[in-house]
Amino acid sequence: xxxxxxxxxxxxxxxxxxxxxxxxxxxxxxxxxxxxxxxxxxxxxxxxxxxxxxxxxxxxxxxxxxxxxxxxxxxxxxxxxxxxxxxxxxxxxxxxxxxxxxxxxxxxxxxxxxxxxxxxxxxxxxxxxxxxxxxxxxxxx
Length: 141
Fold this sequence. Notes:
Blueprint: H1 18-21, H2 29-47, H3 51-55, H4 58-67, H5 84-92, H6 127-140
Protein backbone atom coordinates (compact mmCIF):
# COMPACT_ATOMS: atom_id res chain seq x y z
CA UNK A 1 0.00 0.00 0.00
CA UNK A 2 1.28 3.46 -0.90
CA UNK A 3 1.96 5.94 1.89
CA UNK A 4 -0.84 8.47 2.32
CA UNK A 5 -0.54 12.20 2.65
CA UNK A 6 0.32 13.38 6.15
CA UNK A 7 -1.04 16.83 5.30
CA UNK A 8 -4.39 18.38 6.20
CA UNK A 9 -5.85 19.18 2.76
CA UNK A 10 -9.64 19.42 3.12
CA UNK A 11 -10.45 20.60 -0.42
CA UNK A 12 -8.03 18.24 -2.13
CA UNK A 13 -9.45 15.39 -0.04
CA UNK A 14 -12.80 16.02 -1.80
CA UNK A 15 -11.29 15.72 -5.29
CA UNK A 16 -10.61 12.21 -6.52
CA UNK A 17 -11.16 12.91 -10.22
CA UNK A 18 -11.74 16.07 -12.27
CA UNK A 19 -15.54 15.65 -12.14
CA UNK A 20 -15.24 16.24 -8.37
CA UNK A 21 -13.14 19.34 -9.02
CA UNK A 22 -15.81 20.75 -11.32
CA UNK A 23 -18.33 20.55 -8.45
CA UNK A 24 -16.35 23.07 -6.38
CA UNK A 25 -17.27 26.75 -6.51
CA UNK A 26 -14.81 28.87 -8.44
CA UNK A 27 -14.03 30.74 -5.22
CA UNK A 28 -12.39 27.55 -3.82
CA UNK A 29 -9.93 27.09 -6.69
CA UNK A 30 -7.11 29.23 -5.26
CA UNK A 31 -7.22 27.25 -2.01
CA UNK A 32 -7.34 23.98 -3.95
CA UNK A 33 -4.27 25.08 -5.91
CA UNK A 34 -2.43 25.84 -2.66
CA UNK A 35 -3.31 22.40 -1.31
CA UNK A 36 -2.29 20.74 -4.58
CA UNK A 37 1.04 22.59 -4.40
CA UNK A 38 1.61 21.34 -0.83
CA UNK A 39 0.74 17.76 -1.81
CA UNK A 40 3.04 17.87 -4.84
CA UNK A 41 5.96 19.19 -2.79
CA UNK A 42 5.39 16.61 -0.06
CA UNK A 43 5.13 13.71 -2.52
CA UNK A 44 8.26 14.67 -4.44
CA UNK A 45 10.14 15.10 -1.16
CA UNK A 46 9.44 11.39 -0.56
CA UNK A 47 10.17 10.00 -4.03
CA UNK A 48 12.46 12.52 -5.63
CA UNK A 49 11.70 13.85 -9.07
CA UNK A 50 11.49 17.00 -11.10
CA UNK A 51 9.60 19.42 -8.89
CA UNK A 52 9.85 22.73 -10.77
CA UNK A 53 7.92 21.76 -13.89
CA UNK A 54 4.90 20.59 -11.90
CA UNK A 55 4.92 23.58 -9.56
CA UNK A 56 4.97 25.89 -12.55
CA UNK A 57 1.65 24.54 -13.81
CA UNK A 58 -0.38 24.08 -10.59
CA UNK A 59 -2.94 26.80 -11.35
CA UNK A 60 -2.99 25.85 -15.03
CA UNK A 61 -3.68 22.21 -14.14
CA UNK A 62 -6.57 23.16 -11.85
CA UNK A 63 -8.00 25.53 -14.47
CA UNK A 64 -7.75 23.05 -17.35
CA UNK A 65 -9.49 20.29 -15.42
CA UNK A 66 -12.11 22.76 -14.15
CA UNK A 67 -12.98 24.21 -17.56
CA UNK A 68 -12.61 21.18 -19.82
CA UNK A 69 -14.48 17.89 -19.61
CA UNK A 70 -11.51 15.61 -19.11
CA UNK A 71 -10.85 12.89 -20.12
CA UNK A 72 -13.19 13.47 -23.09
CA UNK A 73 -11.34 16.73 -23.72
CA UNK A 74 -7.69 15.77 -23.96
CA UNK A 75 -4.86 17.56 -22.18
CA UNK A 76 -1.45 17.07 -23.77
CA UNK A 77 1.49 18.01 -21.57
CA UNK A 78 4.64 19.14 -23.35
CA UNK A 79 6.96 17.93 -20.60
CA UNK A 80 6.00 14.78 -18.72
CA UNK A 81 7.29 16.17 -15.42
CA UNK A 82 4.58 18.85 -15.60
CA UNK A 83 2.04 16.11 -14.99
CA UNK A 84 2.63 15.37 -11.30
CA UNK A 85 -0.25 17.68 -10.19
CA UNK A 86 -2.35 16.29 -13.06
CA UNK A 87 -1.79 12.77 -11.71
CA UNK A 88 -2.97 13.85 -8.25
CA UNK A 89 -6.22 15.28 -9.68
CA UNK A 90 -6.92 12.30 -11.94
CA UNK A 91 -7.40 9.44 -9.52
CA UNK A 92 -3.77 8.70 -8.71
CA UNK A 93 -3.26 10.69 -5.54
CA UNK A 94 -3.29 7.52 -3.44
CA UNK A 95 -0.23 6.33 -5.39
CA UNK A 96 1.61 9.63 -5.90
CA UNK A 97 4.19 8.67 -3.29
CA UNK A 98 5.18 5.74 -5.52
CA UNK A 99 6.19 8.16 -8.29
CA UNK A 100 9.25 6.94 -10.20
CA UNK A 101 9.56 3.87 -7.94
CA UNK A 102 9.59 0.25 -9.12
CA UNK A 103 5.97 -0.74 -9.71
CA UNK A 104 4.81 2.81 -9.00
CA UNK A 105 3.53 5.69 -11.04
CA UNK A 106 5.52 6.81 -14.05
CA UNK A 107 7.33 10.13 -13.87
CA UNK A 108 5.68 11.01 -17.17
CA UNK A 109 2.16 10.77 -18.55
CA UNK A 110 1.47 7.20 -19.58
CA UNK A 111 -1.52 6.04 -21.62
CA UNK A 112 -1.67 2.64 -19.91
CA UNK A 113 -1.79 4.32 -16.50
CA UNK A 114 -4.90 6.47 -16.91
CA UNK A 115 -7.59 7.50 -19.40
CA UNK A 116 -6.61 11.06 -18.49
CA UNK A 117 -3.23 10.53 -20.20
CA UNK A 118 -3.93 10.55 -23.96
CA UNK A 119 -0.25 10.81 -24.84
CA UNK A 120 2.97 9.46 -23.35
CA UNK A 121 4.84 12.73 -22.88
CA UNK A 122 8.46 12.64 -21.87
CA UNK A 123 10.89 15.39 -22.76
CA UNK A 124 9.83 18.65 -24.36
CA UNK A 125 8.71 19.56 -27.84
CA UNK A 126 6.73 16.47 -28.81
CA UNK A 127 3.32 17.80 -27.78
CA UNK A 128 2.61 19.83 -30.91
CA UNK A 129 3.14 16.90 -33.24
CA UNK A 130 1.12 14.63 -30.93
CA UNK A 131 -1.77 17.10 -30.80
CA UNK A 132 -1.70 17.57 -34.56
CA UNK A 133 -1.75 13.81 -35.08
CA UNK A 134 -4.71 13.43 -32.71
CA UNK A 135 -6.61 16.20 -34.50
CA UNK A 136 -5.98 14.69 -37.94
CA UNK A 137 -6.99 11.25 -36.66
CA UNK A 138 -10.19 12.72 -35.20
CA UNK A 139 -11.03 14.52 -38.45
CA UNK A 140 -10.39 11.43 -40.59
CA UNK A 141 -12.57 9.20 -38.42
